[in-house]
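queue> pop job 88
queue> type: inverse folding (structure -> sequence)
queue> payload:
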């Protein structure tokens, strides 16, 4: 070898080594350096894409959103991108007008969310609503003259008659709250004020608002609306009886002029929502499920016609996967469909007559970030698909495709990822000890992983339970891995994306053999020479919190320590105090607690409290109404009374989603510290 070639090789090796060594593991504060793409919307001409860039403001400790616009060339490559609406306005729900020259969106104006319209050539948005309607779910009329939206009108709170008037300036107690609605509080929104959800239309030129519905109770669900081709009606979903029919909703036609009562279109037993009207106006496609007595009613793709009582038909009935979103092709001959599949999401184009499927986008990334769940978004127009992209080492970006691979992309986190030593993710599938059922999972390795070393292992369990994990980047698993842990995460029976039978294998048996699935994957991975079998840990949130407590009750000697985040502890408490009581009672338990108290007790982790020996940490937001704090307090008290080492971490003001960015981090770093303290040396 020539001397100069050897010198060049040495220099190259030195630079490469320096580049590798310069990389550092993911740190907690990195959350404030990250952003991700959500809610892409393709323009009617297929040449532009609106999208939201979500980020995390450190000074205000909150998630923020900016509205961006990307332009595409004829091949679908992105040629430029620009900021349209800054984060201080909080833009959301952006949609293009039919001619593509304007957009509508919701943003903050004088501290209230209002509907804005922006002519893209001008680049300045103007509010077209005022007041306190809390607008959302925007859709333009076919002629572009009006925007339909859902909103809420508040009513005067009930008061106790005969109370004397309070003296001016008196330091009196707050008035009593008189509650008559079962659904009196919702996680993430807090206590509901008196009022009702209605459907409205605003004239873009005059800003005149018409309310299409009447009454002092809810008149529409906030699950999607669409205009009929005649411009005189809007179709939407409505749940008439949320107590006795928590998954019983129907499609209705609403008179835009507000002069006629809403007209029921569908009446089958089950749910119908997220309607989309075909461009020719002849058919309505929607997502929904048939009523059943099973744990999970899988959402599928259906079609009907805009005639009351018309036949409802399943489209692509052989697609044994949950449908997450739909969009008609311009010729009304097919529907682009987003669906879950084995830990990820994909987009297929489905023939509207035969149901035949053609893959359009192979992989759509999740946008949860806190945990590695699928749940991305897409949009399509004129053969252009825009979707959230998938990475194992950074959050989702924007992908664009013309149906033959990715033609354009925006990745806000590439430079950040290039400087990080991220966790490598490897897929693993095991046969469950409960009947040999194949169970898919993944392993995230510490960034400095060496096959010659042994590492502690954390089993992290997803919530839902009818959700999933997948091979995506997440803050939680990145920080677990950076702390030196092997992280195992899987989709046990009950998870979605593996078919109806798999998702419903926990009907009348939750928790049950899903526990066996999880233990099987832990046992299999623990056999590997790089796992320290003395140091197995377990944790999970929501439904994962349920299975964490179930796991240490059923196998009290298996794990060194456990962390259950926002768990259900007592199902009787859950179906009477959570924000979705009738759903939990009817679909998950199948009976009332006063009719079958033994059933409720036997399926509650609380029933195993007497067997728990594992040091346990419990983490819940104090404003969590999905799995209320009382659940956590109950298990904390039970384990303390038994003398089990137990810690309770309460996050003030946080709901089920674990609150603000700093609270996300606390809910990750507290388990890391707890596990570190309980490692066998």
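queue> result:
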């Amino acid at each position: 070898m020539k001397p100069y070639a050897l010198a060049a090789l040495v220099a190259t090796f030195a630079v490469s080594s320096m580049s590798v060594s310069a990389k550092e593991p993911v740190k907690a504060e990195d959350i404030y350096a990250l952003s991700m793409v959500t809610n892409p919307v393709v323009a009617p001409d297929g040449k532009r894409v609106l999208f939201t860039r979500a980020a995390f403001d450190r000074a205000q400790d909150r998630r923020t959103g900016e509205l961006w616009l990307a332009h595409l060339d004829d091949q679908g490559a992105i040629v430029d991108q620009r900021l349209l609406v800054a984060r201080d306005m909080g833009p959301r729900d952006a949609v293009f007008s039919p001619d593509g020259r304007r957009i509508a969106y919701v943003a903050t104006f004088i501290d209230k969310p209002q509907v804005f319209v922006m002519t893209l050539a001008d680049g300045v948005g103007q509010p077209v609503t005022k007041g306190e309607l809390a607008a959302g779910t925007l859709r333009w009329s076919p002629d572009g003259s009006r925007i339909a939206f859902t909103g809420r009108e508040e009513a005067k709170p009930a008061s106790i008659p005969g109370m004397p008037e309070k003296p001016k300036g008196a330091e009196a107690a707050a008035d009593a709250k008189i509650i008559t609605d079962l659904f009196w509080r919702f996680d993430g929104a807090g206590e509901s004020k008196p009022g009702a959800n209605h459907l409205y239309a605003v004239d873009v030129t005059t800003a005149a608002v018409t309310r299409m519905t009447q009454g002092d109770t809810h008149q529409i669900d906030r699950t999607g609306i669409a205009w009929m081709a005649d411009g005189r009606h809007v179709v939407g979903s409505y749940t008439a009886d949320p107590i006795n029919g928590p998954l019983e909703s129907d499609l209705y036609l609403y008179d835009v002029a507000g002069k006629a009562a809403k007209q029921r279109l569908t009446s089958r037993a089950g749910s119908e929502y997220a309607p989309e009207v075909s461009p020719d106006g002849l058919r309505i496609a929607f997502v929904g499920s048939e009523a059943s007595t099973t744990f999970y009613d899988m959402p599928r793709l259906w079609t009907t016609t805009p005639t009351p009582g018309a036949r409802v038909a399943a489209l692509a009935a052989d697609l044994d996967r949950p449908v997450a979103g739909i969009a008609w092709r311009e010729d009304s001959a097919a529907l682009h469909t987003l669906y879950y599949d084995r830990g990820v999401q994909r987009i297929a184009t489905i023939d509207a007559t035969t149901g035949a499927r053609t893959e359009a986008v192979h992989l759509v990334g999740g946008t949860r970030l806190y945990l590695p769940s699928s749940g991305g978004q897409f949009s399509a127009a004129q053969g252009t698909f825009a979707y959230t992209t998938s990475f194992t080492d950074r959050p989702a970006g924007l992908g664009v495709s013309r149906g033959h691979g990715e033609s354009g992309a925006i990745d806000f986190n590439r430079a950040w990822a290039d400087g990080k030593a991220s966790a490598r993710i490897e897929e693993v599938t095991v046969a469950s000890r409960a009947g040999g059922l194949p169970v898919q999972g993944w392993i995230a390795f510490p960034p400095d992983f060496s096959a010659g070393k042994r590492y502690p292992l954390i089993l992290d369990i997803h919530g839902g339970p009818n959700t999933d994990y997948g091979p995506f980047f997440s803050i939680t698993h990145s920080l677990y891995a950076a702390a030196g842990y092997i992280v195992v995460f899987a989709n046990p029976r009950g998870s979605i994306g593996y078919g109806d039978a798999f998702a419903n294998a926990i009907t009348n048996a939750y928790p049950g053999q899903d526990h066996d699935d999880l233990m099987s994957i832990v046992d299999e991975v623990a056999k590997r020479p790089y796992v320290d079998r003395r140091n197995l840990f377990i944790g999970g949130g929501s439904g994962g919190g349920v299975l964490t407590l179930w796991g240490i009750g059923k196998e009290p000697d298996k794990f060194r320590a456990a962390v259950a985040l926002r768990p259900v502890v007592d199902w009787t408490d859950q179906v009477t105090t959570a924000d979705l009581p009738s759903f939990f009672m009817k679909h998950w338990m199948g009976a009332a607690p006063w009719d079958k108290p033994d059933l409720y007790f036997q399926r509650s982790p609380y029933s195993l409290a007497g067997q728990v020996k594992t040091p346990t940490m419990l983490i819940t937001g104090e404003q969590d109404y999905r799995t209320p704090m009382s659940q956590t307090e109950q298990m904390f008290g039970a384990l303390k009374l038994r003398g089990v080492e137990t810690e309770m971490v309460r996050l003030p003001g946080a709901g089920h989603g674990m609150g603000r960015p700093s609270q996300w981090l606390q809910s990750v770093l507290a388990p890391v510290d707890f596990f570190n303290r309980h490692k066998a040396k």
